[in-house]
Amino acid sequence: MERGRRKGRGMRTAPLFLVLVFLFMPVAAEERSDAGNVDVGGGGEEEAFDKRFLKLWTDGGGGDEEDHLRWYGDDDEYDDDVEEEENGDAIMLGSARCPRPTKKKKRNVVRVDDFGAAGDGCADDTEAFAKAWEKACSLKDAVFVVTANRRYKVGPIRFMGPCKERLVILIHGTIVAPEEPSEWDPKSPRLWLLFGGLVGARIQGGGVIDGSGSKWWANSCKIDKSKPCKAAPTAVTIDSCSGVRVRSLHIQNAQQMHLTVSRSRAVRLDKLAITAPGDSPNTDGIHVAESTAVTITSCRIGTGDDCISISNASFAVKMRGIVCDPGHGISIGSLGQGGSYAAVEGVSLDNARIARAQNGVRIKTWQGGAGYVRNVRFSNVLVDDVDHPIIIDQFYCDQRTPCANRSTNVQVSNVVYRNITGTSRRAEAIKFACSDAVPCSDIVLSNINLLREDGSEVQTVCNCAMGFDYEPVRPAAHCLRNSECGGEEPKALPLH
Fold first, then answer.
1. In whole angstroms, what is the distance from residue 264 CA to residue 241 CA?
2. Which of 139, 143, 113 is nearest to 128 (CA)?
3. pLDDT one-digit tens code per residue, 135-186
4. Is residue 328 among the annotated active site residues?
5. In CATH, what is the architecture of 17-481?
6. Catalytic site residue from 258, 287, 328, 388
7. Dihedral of the CA atoms 188, 190, 194, 196 (nearest 10)?
8. Do residues 425 and 450 make contact, with C-beta atoms less than 8 angstroms apart?
9. Cα separation of 124 and 185, whole Å?
10. DSSP 265-302
């Protein structure tokens, strides 16, 4: 780890007013928009990169456009009506926001069984799913139905849009992947079920998506170090979509990641159960990349890797009501690998329980990278039997050979930890391992209470991390006020 004082570095003279505003802004202001008001502009060397994502941010910040995409009206009423089949031929759509008392809209039901799907778990139903999708995508008010109490073996498949308006995918039964990696289509090494180019679609139904990942895990270089490291498929990918909602599904035993949201905006994930054994490698629960205004609520996740991971070019990601048990915690990163530029902003986690995990809430970056992570808030988190409940690691290195020391890193700033309580497996419950070259700044701790399981005290460890700890904070984090990187102790503002 880099140590020592950097000559000539003074403490930042600018007050921490902005981070305090971020900490105590009214809830009403928070609820106005999933995107918030995040400035992704910049100058100098960052300007070119920021421009690449400015359109994504301004176009995809939720607000009025997200409301427009919620064509289905009231959530609960819609869910009840859209899953009610009448006479086996139609599904009736309930009232919209301005109800018409005497009129309901007939849905166009497309069942995979009608296109030759066997649903016995043995026959390959991939072609039948593809034909059914082609039909459903071409119809307005279509419902693509995977029948309950049946098990459909499906290989890599792409459910691509654009499709006609008001498409619903109802997964009542089980979709299962081929068990043998040798059966996998080499043309699709990283994807199993891909939903791409959809606007306003809903994917739901209470069914199961099973990746049959056990043999993939056995071939992983993290399990058998004699084997080369190879890519494996992600179970479900939401790519280049707008206003899509995924809810009430069980995704399990993915070959690698379970659910990825990439290059999308205004996506909502709700009431998902995601499970895999605690020793299954690289089986992240939910992974967000290059996406804006993603909301993740009421999800129960237990896997062998990060329960939720948020990577490069992700803005305005809200998480609420998350259970992570077991796993590697809830992470931003990793970022900056191979000297790359990364940007993550406007991430919040509220009301979570993290148990039997390597980490609680984590930010991880590689040495040699560039860019920023800023405006992050972790609040109301209960941790139980966690190695590091709070951690920033700017020396992350997930490779077989040691990582070389580098003089650049992704800058981490304006990070707030509030109302975090529970137990830590290790004495170093709070760890801020930041770079001498690019210190962490504006780190705020408030109302923290962490102990060992036996009730003994834990500690906070800082390297080049600057900020404040507002009592009560246990263990105390005075090291934030006396950074090893030098400078005068900042003047704290009172909390009210």
1. 5
2. 113
3. 999 999 999 999 999 999 999 999 999 999 999 999 999 999 999 998 898 8
4. yes
5. 3 Solenoid (2.160)
6. 328
7. -100
8. no
9. 13
10. EEEEEES-EEE--TT-TT--SEEEES-EEEEEEEEEEE
